[in-house]
């Protein structure tokens, strides 16, 4: 029984002497462990059970595993030999545009081409790092300068493997994959099928196996990548659980997510737009749209968001400016645009208005978001259609010029190169 003359008790777990009301009662007897320690023990048991259940689910659920996959470049990203005049070193070498760098293309072999101010192309010369023995290039990165309120360029050193992985390999965990394993530990080999983005732990284990056996297979590497013991220290199995429309996953603990943040709202809306049956009933034109594998992980999307979003602006996530025929949301096809510009660059944004006059001429105007803008009067219907196209091109080019420096250069270029169609 509880002794009325004893007002304190020492907790057997934490060793603190505490008032009796800090201890729970079990079968009319005071527990030897304080309420705080007792509750902590219960929480720990529940957590360990959840962890055990989660790991069991992780082992069974293939959708939670990382798979070896490659990206197929879109035609608008590719720099062809007929334009650059630079010979390839292999039949399958292809140069893919690096949107975040000034006029630069990386190949699937780790070579980089730059377009010079005079319109010619040249291979960028790299140097090998003494510390890492990695081939490194110096490029001009397009970044937003807050002090100038404009986008500009800053010199940045880039390893040859980094843009190859970015543009050609599906990277499930960009936040934690800060190391690159080169096949046979040959850092001079930057062929995309020989590169593996991995974490520190995974890299060290891959290196250990390679040094012990003299070789390590792709299958062994992927087994290490998916092994629980080589995940980041803060990794939990439920990070990879596809809890959003059966496709999207947080990539982190729920306690680490700001659900009110603009990045999360944009990501969630994107996932729902592509995979929600409710949304598809209301907006059936989203039925065939999808989110790329990398952006199904919110953490990956947030990295891209933080790099391209200007704080305080209200924008749409556009997927049509760069690749009008596309139906996928990805870092290779998307850009942030104001709602006005996003609507203008949709097919319904600028409508043609061609009317025949009593004298046989044709008056041409365009309707931009319900606002009429006159283009001119033409003698024939054919000239009228041509006049509309020219007027639309001039209008879009004027918009693009007004945006120069206010948006990343790849968005500005996308505006200038936008395909004009007659509605």
3D structure, described in words:
Helix content is 30%, strand content 23%. The protein is an alpha+beta fold and 423 residues long. Strands 5-6-7-8-9 form a five-stranded antiparallel beta sheet. The termini are far apart.
Mean pLDDT: 93
Architecture of the largest domain, according to CATH? Alpha-Beta Complex
Radius of gyration (Å): 29 Å
- Percentage of residues in strands: 15-25%
Number of strands: 21
CATH top level of the largest domain? Alpha Beta
Strands of the widest sheet, in order across it, are 5-6-7-8-9
Number of helical stretches of at least 4 residues: 11
Kindly state the percentage of residues in helix.
25-40%
| Fold-level CATH name of the largest domain | Homing Intron 3 (I-Ppo) Encoded Endonuclease, Chain A
Please give the largest β-sheet: 5 strands, antiparallel
Strand pairing plus helix content: what structural class? alpha+beta
Question: What would the keywords be for this entry?
Answer:
Homing Intron 3 (I-Ppo) Encoded Endonuclease, Chain A; about 25% strand; single chain; about 425 residues; 3 domains
Question: In brief, what are we looking at here?
Answer:
The protein is an alpha+beta fold. Helix content is 30%, strand content 23%.
Strand and helix map with partners:
Elements lengths: L7 E3 L6 E3 L3 E4 L2 E6 H26 L17 E2 L1 H4 L10 E4 L5 E4 L4 E4 L5 E3 L3 E2 L6 E11 L4 E10 L1 H8 L10 E4 L12 E4 L1 H14 L4 H9 L35 H14 L1 H6 L7 E2 L6 H11 L7 E3 L9 E2 L5 E3 L1 H6 L5 E7 L5 E7 L2 E8 L2 H23 L5 H8 L7
Parallel strand pairs: 15-17
Antiparallel strand pairs: 1-2, 3-4, 5-6, 6-7, 7-8, 8-9, 10-11, 11-12, 13-14, 16-18, 19-20, 20-21
Helix pairs in contact: 10-11
